[in-house]
Design goal:
single chain, alpha/beta, Rossmann fold, Arc Repressor Mutant, subunit A, 2 domains, 8 helices, 11 strands, elongated, binds calcium ion
Length: about 220
């Protein structure tokens, strides 16, 4: 899952950046409103964490423009303690949730999971598929009632495919969701992760759609 973090406070931003990466997200961190606007135009994210008090362009303007363009990616805004008007303005402009500074990193991660879950139309916090149970919060995976250990990125690839069951995800899209700008992308990384997942689970779980990408089928009888 790839997240855009927009925060000009270096200390706070650094803490969130590290925390989210440890939680398995690919994070792109920008520190002003103009760069945020460009990042949102040029990239696809699973969620956005947006501070409202930003240099160059206010967070609220970034948010309004983003929504005016019809983009529905979940946005969580960060506001100051006394910023009740900011909170109201932000929610009215299309934010999905907010946190008041200072906040707990664990809470930020939990809210982010909830936002991403809702964006995929899920009410259940775990992803279940046949005899597979993936829990994004606990970072655990069970297959045939056995715990299976996946690396951080294998886990992210599997979660992404499960969130998008019935849809083909291109290698580029999977790659984008795994790496931030500052990460070095290893060539064939996605293929290697898929290979490992297949070996650890069922080789037939993930289908290769030649020339297009990868997909996990919807469970039988699960109509769109
Ligand atoms: Ca700020």
């Amino acid at each position: 899952m790839r997240v855009l973090l927009v925060e000009d406070d270096v200390l706070l931003g650094d803490g969130i950046h590290t925390g989210l990466r440890n939680d398995g997200y690919a994070v792109d961190w920008v520190k002003d409103g103009e760069t945020a606007r460009r990042a949102l135009q040029d990239n696809e994210f699973h969620a956005v964490i947006l501070d409202l008090g930003l240099p160059k362009l206010p967070g609220l303007t970034v948010l309004k423009e983003f929504r005016e363009q019809g983009n529905s990616t979940p946005v969580l805004i960060l506001t100051a303690q006394d910023g009740i008007n900011d909170r109201i303005g932000g929610l009215d402009a299309g934010a999905d949730d907010y946190l008041v500074k200072p906040f707990d990193l664990e809470e930020l991660c939990a809210r982010l999971r909830a936002l991403i879950r809702r964006a995929h139309g899920r009410t259940d916090s775990v992803l279940q598929h046949d005899n597979l149970v993936l829990d994004p919060a606990a970072h655990t995976l069970q297959y045939n009632n056995q715990n299976v250990t996946l690396s951080r990125r294998e886990f992210a690839v599997l979660q992404n495919l499960l969130e998008n069951r019935g849809r083909v995800l291109s290698r580029e899209r999977l790659e984008q969701s795994l790496y931030g700008w500052s990460d070095e992308v290893e060539s064939n990384a996605v293929e290697v992760y898929i290979h490992h997942i297949r070996k650890k689970l069922d080789s037939k779980l993930i289908r290769t759609i030649r020339g297009v990408g990868y997909m996990i089928d919807k469970p039988q009888g699960d109509a769109e």
